[in-house]
Design brief:
Rossmann fold, 45% helix, nucleotide-binding
Length: 233
């Protein structure tokens, strides 16, 4: 079938990006780092989740953050208060991070810190329900957030992110008593497309579900470390 120029260009861009993502992942693997790409629409609670995650795990894991925003370092400054390395990337008009942008963040980590001392890099992607899921950045796991304020239909209307997610965090569940929303239906809509996705309901405000989330993160880091140790044995 003949492709339009735009379609061919899109495929080429994704191919180039994938090569860059594979290169980034090779760096993470060489340093023994697990990388997680955290994605959601604007306002779903990514930064609040990261604040609670750094608070809960920084004494158990050596963590760094690559923080993506179109403009400002407001979110990066919030996370720097937890005393972990934070590299801010401003994407300008781009609605997502790509492998090349994250490569710049990796080089900053390499020059300013000791990446061999890190266990985990958390990438906070730009708030967008579509584009971030299409551009890998070198991650070992994709984390999608969906706030209950966004409604039950978003996984069906914006499927790519939820199809790609290794873990879905349904956020702001403390607001459930005030909303006409069915959390079980959100989970069912995700499982319809991605039956293997881990789904955890959380509240950064009350702490509900956070220990389960922390456990999932630790298990992925441990599994990744074991795999790398076995590979290099």
């Amino acid at each position: 079938m003949h492709q339009t120029f735009d379609a061919a260009l899109g495929i080429d861009l994704l191919h180039v990006n994938q090569a860059g993502a594979d290169h980034n992942r090779a760096h993470f693997d060489a340093w023994g780092i697990t990388c997680m790409n955290i994605m959601s629409s604007p306002g779903a609670g990514k930064t609040a989740l990261l604040e609670r995650t750094l608070e809960g795990l920084h004494q158990k894991l050596a963590i760094a953050v690559i923080e993506g925003d179109m403009t400002t370092e407001l979110d990066a400054d919030r996370l720097r208060q937890y005393g972990v390395p934070v590299v801010a990337i401003n994407t300008g008009r781009s609605c997502h991070l790509d492998a090349k942008m994250v490569a710049g963040g990796i080089h900053t980590l390499e020059h300013q810190y000791d990446p061999n001392a890190l266990d985990l890099v958390l990438v906070e992607n730009v708030g967008n329900l579509v584009c971030p899921a299409e551009f890998e950045v070198g991650e070992h796991a994709k984390i999608a957030l969906l706030s209950i304020t966004e409604g039950e239909d978003k996984p069906l209307k914006y499927p790519i992110m939820f199809q790609e997610a290794d873990c879905l965090l349904i956020t702001k569940v403390d607001l459930a008593p005030y909303l006409d929303v069915n959390i079980e239906q959100i989970a069912a809509n995700v499982r319809q497309m991605n039956p293997h996705c881990t789904i955890i309901s959380v509240s950064a405000k009350t702490g509900e579900g956070l220990e389960e989330w922390f456990g999932w993160v630790r298990s992925r880091v441990q599994a990744s470390t074991s795999t790398k140790s076995h590979t290099h044995a």
